[in-house]
């Protein structure tokens, strides 16, 4: 029987290609760590052996990583969209790619153990994800860019912004936290009514997936059970590695610190987010300081970018237009 979710992928890929993006894989370290991307078709460096198309092979050479190249006068700003835990990149950001690609160079990676991305490393921390993503972006020649992170991808984005301020120039985060501390994890799980992150984020039954969608959305959605089963089969692969990612996510309260981030940051939130509620976002805004702004979107939950994509896209584009215009007029700011 045809998997309905898998059958829709060619249409989604067609629409993304129409927006000017192409699939490519970056060999991060020459030792088996690879990250799959959708990248602007005119920005794939054909002569670099560290980057390969789906039909080609990688090399074992490991050239030194270059610094983030300075943006050229006629370059369009780069925007990197980093997905969450329940779907790969292009599924997560399907309503944003077309809206952004008209004015920006859009890069959509799959984090390790999502899509075609993988690594032989045993490191499951958000910091390792951030380092691999930063290395891949540099190999693609991406200069100072805006990073948009959702949920788990927001935590990875915060880590990348802290470690690579020359690469991450601006940051937008939705439905996430700086770090998943013991107290935040326990409070969130108690509020939601589940015993563990894996129970919520790694469902293995139609009932479990329905519960996740119910918690993650403001509006109650209905899909046939078959679609839920097909989604589980396609989107929840690499279950062992993803369970380990969840285990590597939580840090003790005493080890958690608030980074000093130089970037301008937009926290773009669903007002009815039941996983990371708006109060957490307000606290985070105060912790991050005056360069951070918080905007909420009404009648939207954790999946704000999917529930209200038009409003989300408008807010996102307004922020990007503002910060990139400022950069053009004050390049050293």
From TrEMBL:
Gene3D superfamilies: alpha/beta hydrolase. It comes from the Eukaryota. Residues 46-73 are annotated as: Disordered. It holds the Pfam family Abhydrolase_1. InterPro entries: AB_hydrolase_1, AB_hydrolase_fold, Epox_hydrolase-like, Meta-cleavage_hydrolase. Residues 46-63 have a biased composition (Basic and acidic residues). Residues 77-309 form the AB hydrolase-1 domain. SUPFAM superfamilies: alpha/beta-Hydrolases. PANTHER family: ALPHA_BETA-HYDROLASES SUPERFAMILY PROTEIN, SI:DKEY-122A22.2. This is AB hydrolase-1 domain-containing protein.
């Amino acid at each position: 029987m045809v998997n309905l979710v898998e059958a829709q992928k060619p249409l989604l890929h067609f629409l993304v290609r129409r927006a000017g993006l192409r699939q490519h894989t970056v060999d991060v370290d020459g030792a088996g760590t690879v990250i799959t991307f959708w990248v602007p078709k005119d920005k794939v460096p054909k002569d670099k052996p560290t980057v390969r198309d789906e039909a080609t092979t990688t090399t074992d050479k490991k050239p030194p990583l270059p610094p983030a190249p300075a943006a050229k006068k006629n370059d369009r700003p780069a925007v990197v969209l980093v997905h969450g835990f329940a779907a790969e990149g292009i599924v997560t950001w399907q309503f944003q790619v077309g809206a952004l690609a008209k004015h920006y160079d859009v890069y959509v990676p799959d984090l390790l153990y999502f899509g075609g991305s993988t690594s032989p490393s045993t490191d499951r921390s958000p910091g390792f994800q951030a380092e691999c993503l930063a290395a891949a972006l540099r190999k693609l020649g991406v200069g100072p860019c805006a990073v948009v992170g959702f949920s788990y991808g927001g935590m990875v984005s915060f880590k990348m912004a802290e470690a690579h301020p020359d690469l991450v120039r601006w940051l937008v985060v939705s439905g996430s936290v700086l770090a998943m501390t013991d107290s935040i994890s326990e409070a969130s799980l108690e509020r939601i009514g589940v015993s563990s992150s894996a129970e919520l984020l790694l469902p293995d039954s139609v009932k479990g997936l329905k519960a996740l969608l119910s918690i993650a959305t403001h509006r109650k959605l209905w899909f046939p059970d078959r679609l839920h089963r097909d989604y589980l089969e396609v989107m929840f692969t690499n279950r062992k590695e993803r369970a380990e990612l969840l285990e590597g996510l939580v840090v003790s309260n005493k080890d958690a610190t608030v980074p000093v981030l130089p970037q301008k940051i937009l926290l773009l939130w669903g007002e009815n987010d039941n996983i990371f509620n708006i109060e957490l976002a307000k606290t985070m805004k105060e912790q991050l300081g005056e360069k951070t702004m918080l905007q909420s979107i009404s009648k939207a939950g954790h999946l704000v970018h999917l529930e209200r994509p038009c409003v989300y896209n408008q807010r996102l584009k307004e922020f990007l237009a503002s910060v990139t215009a400022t950069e053009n007029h004050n390049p050293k700011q």
